[in-house]
Automatic annotation (TrEMBL):
Full protein name: Major facilitator superfamily (MFS) profile domain-containing protein
Membrane topology: Multi-pass membrane protein
UniProt keyword annotations, A-Z: Membrane, Transmembrane, Transmembrane helix, Transport
InterPro entries given in the database record: MFS_dom, MFS_trans_sf
Transmembrane portions of the chain: 37-56, 68-87
Cellular location(s): Cell membrane
Primary subcellular site in the record, as a coarse category: membrane
Tagged with keyword Cell inner membrane: no
Domain Major facilitator superfamily (MFS) profile: 1-94
Amino acid sequence: MTALMCGCVVLVVAMVAAINLSLPALSAGALAPSSTGLLWIVDSYVLVFGCLLIPAGALGDRYGRKGALLAGLGVFAAGGLLSPDAWSAGRAPP
């Protein structure tokens, strides 16, 4: 179980690093966010992760840690798969 938890932490840290390293490509891409938009892209990822950490821990204590971990990884994977379909950096789709 310890190796699995370490692997999950490595995955999250790697994704934060990947977002930071992809900022030049994001700014030159089709979305073309402003500097404030780039800041929100990075900060919103970490903010959402931090805000969901305590509730996920409480759910893990109540219903089982394995289920909470798998649910969190599922939400993480869904967000990663849906992010390339973004309409813009700061607006909802028309």
